[in-house]
Amino acid sequence: MPAFRQVGEKQLPNPVLCMAWSPKRDLIALANTAGELLLHRLANFQRVWSLPPNENTGKEITALAWRPDGKILAFSLGDTKLVVLCDAEKAEILHLFPLENPVSCMHWMEVLEESSVLNSFYTSEDESNLFLPKLPTLPKSYSTTSKIFSEEKSDEILNLLGEVRLNILVLGGGSGFVELYAYGMYKIATLPGVPGTCSSLCLSSDLKSLSIITEIRSADNDPEICYIQLDTGLLSDCLPEVTRMARKFTHISTLLQYLRLSLTCMCEAWEDILMQMDLRLTKFVQEKNTSTQVQDEFLELLLWGQSSPELQALLMNQLTVKGLKKLGQSIETSYSSIQKLVISHLQSGSEALLYHLSEVKGMSLWKQKFQPLGLDSAAIEDAITAVGSFTLKANELLQVIDKSMKNFKAFFRWLYVAMLRMSEEHVPPELNKMTQKDIAFVADFLSEHFSENEELFDRKGKYFNVERVGQYLKDEDEDLVSPPNTKGNQWLKFLQESTHLKESPLLFPSYSQKSLHFVKRMMEGVIELCLQKPAEVIGKSVKQAVCLPLYTVPESSENTPRLFELPSLYNDKKTNMHYGVFCMPEISPCKLYLLRKFTDPFRPVPNGLMAIDLSNVLSHSIDDDAAGASSDCVYSCQDARFYDDETLTVVLRASEEENRGRVLAQLPLGSALSCEEEFNWDPSLRLDQQSGAIPVKGLVLENQWRDLENMKAQFVAVNGIRKVACVLSSNLRHVRVYEMDVEDEEDEERPESQNASSDQDGLEETPAIRGEAEGGETEGGGQRAKEQLESGEALELS
Predict the structure, then answer these.
(1) SS3 letters for 764-780?
(2) What pLDDT sits at residue 104?
(3) Handedness of CA 371, 374, 379, 380 (dihedral sign)
(4) In the predicted model, is pLDDT for residue 514 greater than 70?
C-alpha cells in the first residue's frame, strides 16, 4: 500500500498566504505577508528564487495560479489591483495588466477537447511565420532600465503565447467580479451578476460551465457561503472559433507589448546623449552678454570665419576639439540606433500587427461562425487604420532622422574645422573642402535649432527648438514643436485638391502635428476598444444555472485566514464532473461533505450530495501505547484538497479531549461515490438547515495516513500528477513537504527533523529562524522573524 515520505521541512520567517504546486515539475510557489513570491523545490524544500515586493507592482499578493504548462506563474496584487505574469525559470515579470477590482482567487485551466477542426488549427497556427519575418530581439543594453521589466527581451515576450491549445485564466473578486483571460493575456469574457465575493473558482475543461464559491454578506445575518454554477455554453459550442479568435487577439496583445518596449529602447537611446547637446547650448545662450542671437553668431562664423569672444570661449573651453569630436560620434551612434530600431522593430512589429488584425477582420466577415462571439468588423477596421497611422508616423520619423543626420554631420564637420583653425592646428585636406550643399545643410541646422521664438520660449523654457528627433519620442499630448515641412509635397497637394480622396477610408490619416508616442497611445486605445466587444458579448451569454446556499460563517471566525479555507473545487476531466468539498463545523464537526455536479449544468447527477463520517476514520491508534483505542478517537477535518479524481487529501484533527496530534490522510472516494441513497434538496432552505437528511458514508483507513508529529498542521496543498503534498501549520510559518505514493520505509529513515523536539509544539515555538538557509537574512531580519513567530503562537494555539 502507498505510504508518505517526508522530504523537506522548514520554518519560514513570514506567514504564508498562498501556495500552489507546479503542474509539471516538483516546484511549489509561496506568497507571504511581506509581499514576497517564493519558489521552492520538493527536495529539502530548497529555495529556487524569490521575487521581492515592488513599488510599481504591489506588495499584497492575494492569489496564485500556474499556467498548465508550468512555465508561467500568475499572481494578483490587492493594493495595486494588478495581475502579473512571471517567468518561472528566471523570476522575471513578463507581463502585467490592471483590473477594476482586486482579485481574491484565480484558476488557470487548459481545454482538453479534441476535434478535427481544432487539430487542423493547431498544425496550421504557425502559418504567419511563412509570411512575416521573425521579430528581432531587443537590444540588451536598453532593456534593463525599465522600472517594472528587468532584462525583458522580445523572445521572452513572445514566449508568453505558450502552446496553441487554449488555456484560460479565471479571475474572481469582490462585488461579483469574474473575468476570463485567454492564454492569461486577452480578456475573453466579463461575467456580470455573480453575487458576493468569490473565494474559489473552477472552469471545466470542456468549457461548459464555471463553478464558483461565493461569500454573500448581509447587514443582519452572518456571511453565507454559496455554490454557483454558471452556464458557459457559448464558449463550448464555439470552441474552434473561440480558440482562433483568442489566439489572434493574444498575438495582438503580445505585439503591442513588443512595440511599447521598442519605443522605450528608442527613448533611452535618445535621452542620455542628445540632451547633452541641448543643455550645453542652452547654458551658452543664457550666459552670453551680447545682444546678437546665437543663430547670427554661428552664421557669422560660417560666412566670414570670425566669431565673437563668447562663442569662441564656449567652443574652446567648454566643448573643446576633443569633446566636440566625441559628442558628434555619440550623437551619430544614437541616431543610427534609433534608425535601426524604427526599421527592424517598429516596422516589423507594425507589419505583424496589420497581418493579424487583417485575419481577425476576415473572421468577423464570416458572420455565421464569428458573429455570436461579438467580432465587430467596423471596430477592427478602425484598429487597422490606427496601425496604418502608426506606421506612417514611424516612416515620417525615419525621414526626419535621415535629414537630421545629414545636417548634424555637416554642422559638426564644419564646426570641427572651425575649432581647429581657432586653435591654429592642422586641418586635414579631406575636411577642408565644403560644397554648397554642405553649407546649405549647416544653414538648415542653424535655422531649425536656433530659431529664437518668443512663443516657443514661453512653452518650453528654452531659447531654441527641441531636437527634431527627440520631439517624436516625447510622451506628450502637445503638438510637435517643429512639425515636418510639407511645402512642395506633390502628393499632399494632390490629396487636398481631390474631393474624393481627401476623406477616403482607404488612406491612413497621418497626424502630422503629433508625436510617435501620441499616435502609439491612440492606436492602443482603438485596439483596446476592438478587443472589448467580444468580452462583453460572451460575458452576457453566460447565465446562472445553479445557486445553492450551503451554510453561514460565524462572525467569530472572521479573523482567521480565509485564503486557504474550504470549500475547495475540482474538475474531473474524465467524467466531466464538478466537485466541491466543504465542512460545516458548527453543524457536524466530524463530517466532510462532497457536492457533485455535471459540467453540463442541465444534466441531473445521481448522488449529488453526500457526507463522509470522519469519526473513526483510522483503523488503529496513532499512539502505539494506546493500541485499540481508535474507536474512542473522534476526528474533524481541518483542510481537504483533491489529490486526483478518486482521492481526497485531508488534514485531520482529534477532538479537544483527545491528546493526539494532527494527521495527514488520503481518503478514497470510490465507496462514498457509490452511495445509492439520494438527497432531496429543499431549495427554500440552506444546506445546513437540512443537513440531517444528507446521506452519510463511513470510511476506515488502513495505512493511508501519517501522524504529523510536532506540528499543528492546518492546511495542505497537493499535486496528484507529481504525487506531492505540502502541509502548512496553523501559524502559517511551519512547512513540510511529502512524496505521497512511495514504498513504505523503515522508521529510522525518516528525516531527523521530525524528532527535533520532544515537545509537540517545539517547532511551532522555536524562535530561531534558519536565516542562512533562507538566503542569508540580516540580524535585524532574524529578530523581526522571531517576533513574528512569537506573535503567531496565539493563532497557532487557539
Answers:
(1) CCCCCCCCCCCCCCCHH
(2) 92
(3) negative
(4) yes
